[in-house]
Amino acid sequence: MAGRESHVPPAMAFIPYVPYEEAEGLLAELYARYGGEDGRVDHIIRIHSLNPSSMAHHFQLYAHLMRGPSPLSRVRREMIAVTVSAANDCFY
């Protein structure tokens, strides 16, 4: 549109991670435990692959916040997460 600046999202930070086929020990166990039907781990959890202990703790926190006891339904919690991600120009 004329007169409007185009919105260019900021570049996302690159966080290295261990590929699935290179995972060993605890990390391989966590990939298997936290992987979905396709065996893939959500990016927000996978970024901890260089520190598997951190991955386990983050997943426990995430599971508690999203699935633990709360006055908010799971759907409402997901809606909040999507809204925050959108406000932060986060692709997930």
Give a structural overview.
This protein is an all-alpha fold. It has one domain. Helices cover 48% and strands 0% of the residues. The protein contains four helices and no strands. It is flat, with a radius of gyration of 17 Å. The two termini are 27 Å apart.
Short characterization:
It is built from 4 helices and no strands. It has helices at residues 25-34, 43-46, 52-67, 74-87.
How far is the N terminus from the C terminus?
27 Å
Shape: flat
Quick check: average pLDDT? 87
Poorly predicted sequence stretches spanning 5 or more consecutive residues:
none
Q: Tell me how many strands there are.
A: 0
Q: For the CA atoms, what is the radius of gyration?
A: 17 Å
Q: What does the main sheet amount to? A: none
Tally of individual helices:
4
Question: How many domains make up the coordinates?
Answer: 1
- Binned, the helix content reads 40-55%
Order of helices and strands: HHHH
List the helices and strands and how they pair.
Elements (H helix, E strand, L loop, with lengths): L24 H10 L8 H4 L5 H16 L6 H14 L5
Helix pairs in contact: 1-3
